[in-house]
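Usage

Read records sequentially. Each one opens with the input sequence:
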Amino acid sequence: MPVEFLTDDQAASYGKFNEEPTRPELERFFFLDDEDRKLIAKRRGDHSRLGFALQMCTVRYIGRFLPDNPLDVPWVVVEYLGEQLGIEDVSCVKQYTERKPTAYEHAWEIRDAYEYHEYDDAEWGRKFRTFLHGRAWTHAEGPVALFNQAVGWLRRHRVLLPGVSVLARKVSEVRTVAERRLYATVARAAHRADGALPGDLVTTLAVPEGARFSELERLRRPPTRTTGTAFARSLERVDEIGAFQLGRVRLAQVPPNRLSALARYGLGSKAASLERAEEPKRTAMLTAVMRHLEAKAIDDTLDLFQVLMATRLISTAKRVTEKERLSTLPQLEKASRVLARAAKVLFEELEQVETHGADLDAAALWAAVEEVAPRETVMTAAALVVSLVPEDEGSADVAMRAALTTRYNTVRPFLALLGESKALDAAPGGARVLAGVRRLPTLARRRVKDKPLLPR
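and closes with the structure output:
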C-alpha cells in the first residue's frame, strides 16, 4: 500500500519499467562491456545467458531486481541484449523462469560481482540516512521530491531499492525530524533574543475589540491604493512591524529557503490556525512570518513611493513639457519653412558667384532673398527658431527639471515621510543616498526665502 503522499500510480510505477527505454538509455544502461560479457559467458544455454543479462541491466537501470518476474521488461530491451549476444531467437528467454531458484542465484551473483549493497546494510544505511537528513534540512521540497531524491541517491550508490512503503515511511520520518528541528531552532533563537518576543508575537493573533480581523491579518495586508494617505499608512505599517526588531533573532544556522518556506506557510494560514498550533511550531511560524513581513513591508512602501513619484511628479511634469513643446510646433514649422526657402535662394546665389568667379554683392543677395520673404520676416523666423530650439542639446532635460520644480509642493509630504522613517537602511554603496534621504525632512521645512539653498 502506498504511503499517504504517494498516489496509487506513483506507488505502482516504483522500481519497474514504466515505458520503453529510449535509444540513449539503451546505449547507457543496456550496453554490455567486456566485463559484462565475461560474466555472462559462464552461463549455459542462450536462455540462461540472455536472462542473466536482463537481470544485470535491469538492476542497473531501475535500481532493483524483479524477483517475481525477471522477464517483466519491454521487449525492445530483450531484442537489444539478444543482438549484442548474437542470439537469433530471443524468445528462448521464456525458458529462463522455468527453474525458480535460477533467477535468485543469478541476482545474488550479480549483486556480489558488481558490489551492490542491501538497503539494510549498516554502513550504507548510515550513509543514506545522513544524506536524507541533510537533504530534508537544507531543501524546502515536498515529500514526493524528497522521495525521488532518495531513489536517485540509492541508484547512484548501488544500494538496492527497498519496498515502496519502506522508503516512503523513511522519507516521512526524516521530514518530520527536519520540521521539528526547524521549529525548535527558530523558537529557541527567538527566546534567546528576547524572552518576551514570543508572547508579543502571539498577541498579534488576537482580534482587537471592534475589529473584524487580527493584528497579524492587518499587518500582512499590503497597500492597495496609490495615494498619499496610503503611503503614510504604509510607512506606519513598516514601523509597527519593525518594532518587533526581528533582526536581532540570529538564524544564520537555518537555511534561508527553509525559513522562506516556513514564512509562506505561515502567511497562508489563518490567524486562528496559527493560534491553535502547538509550541514551538507557533513561535517559529510567527517569527518567520514577521521577518518576512519586515522586508516585504519596506519593499511595498518603496514600490508605492516609486509609483507616487512617477504619477504625481515625473509623469505630470513630462506631460506639461510635452504639451508646451507641442504648442510651439506650429510656430516652429512656419518659421522653419521661411528659413528653408530663404536658405535655398541664398545657397543658389552663392553657387553662381562661386561658379562665375564674380565678387560677392550683399545687396544682390538680400534682393534675391527678399523675393521669397521680406527681410524682417526672415530675421523674425530665425529668432523664433533660436528661441524654440536652444543650442544646448540637453534643453529637454532642462525643461523637464524646470517643470519638476513646479510640482515639488505636491510630493514634498511624501519625501518628508520617507526621510523620517526609522526602518530604512542601506548597504555601503547606498549609504550616501540614504543620508540624502534622511535630510529631506529638514530641507522640506526650510525657509528658502530667508536661507536659500546652496547649488550643491
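Summary fields computed downstream for this record:
- The radius of gyration is 40 Å.
- The longest helix spans residues 281-327.
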